[in-house]
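can u pls check wat happens w/ 2-keto-3-deoxygluconate
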Amino acid sequence: MSKTQDLTITDVRVIVSSPGRNFVTVKIVTESGLYGIGDATVNGREQAVATYLREHVAPCLIGRNAHQIEDIWQYLYKGVYWRKGPINMAAIAGVDVALWDIKGKAAGLPVYELLGGKSRKAVTTYAHATGETVADTLDKAEALIAQGFTAVRLQTAVPGLDASYGVLRGQKDYFEQQSSRPLPPEEPWSTRKYMNSIEALFREARARLGDEVALCHDVHSRLTPIEAARLGKMLEPYDLLFLEDAVAAENQDSYRVIRDHTTTALAIGEIYNTIWDCKEMIQNQWIDYIRCATTHAGGITAMRRIADFAALFHVRIAPHGAPDLSPACYAAQAHLGIWAPNFGIQEFVGFGSEASAEVFSHDLTLENGMIHVGDSPGLGVDFDEEAAARHPYKRSYLPVSRLEDGTLWSW
Ligand code: KDG
Ligand code: MG
């Protein structure tokens, strides 16, 4: 084998930086000089996954053939003995995505070609409209629709609560706030206040935005199954594309309860790490969209399996696309999304901050609410380590929420 084809892994670099948000980036270098980039960020627990990668994963990869993606995935998943888990699976994802990037570069092909080629011309996305009042939220939604988005997620502050997930009073942008939280902020929650106010958002939305636009809503796991069932029934007249994370589903059959009562479409998956976390809800057709992220569910190798399994049961993929996922994740998901026959929609909150653009480059473009995937070999993403060093890690947490009597609720 000539040196230019030698994909023996010689270095595994793990870089934690904060270009706008904290990201854990994996860079795998091979003897040939070809390298790949992957994302292993776990929001609020970045250093845990970085240490795990440096101390326990990287030493096992040196000397392996980067072409053997499947074997390396199995080796890291089964070989650890302690299967699954968010830190372990994000580490596997970071490695796996970097290896697909390398394989694409070695083949001279974009990764979507290796997956089976394009199933569509571009990846449809949904954007976020988040406001302090219904009018404010709908102003933002109208602006997004004017930019060409055909699907929008609507979130509005709950009247009577100082803060609610995704909406903070008198605020900067909530994603910006999320990047500067040296301790977990605490936010109040009242299911009654939420349930009493949420219908008005969607009633007004349909009146102002019309019937054509697809609407989503994220409950952030704040309800019980029967409350979620009631919410689904309440929102039926407004024809949501999906209701996301209505209930935390450590018990997968919680979703059977919701399904038994409503025809509102259901989505879940952003905190899942493996197919096992959603196997029952998929095979029982209790959900409509599976929202696992490439970064949190074991990379392209695992997401491809999740997509194929879901396709058997009429479930489509709608990958998580929040700002705590790096451009390496966005690129991986764009390649998956353009290939997957059962692709549904991609969450999209922009390609990142100005600082992130100094550190990451990519060849994705947005046009009329759709991501167009470039044809660079691999994933078309690159990472500038010197620029990253100018944006050091800052500890930052997700919020927790408490009921008005102080009981710890959800995040
Ligand atoms: O790290 C958690 C965030 O990514 C999450 O809160 C965002 O719920 C979210 C979403 O749907 O984008
Ligand atoms: Mg969500």
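The mean pLDDT is 95.
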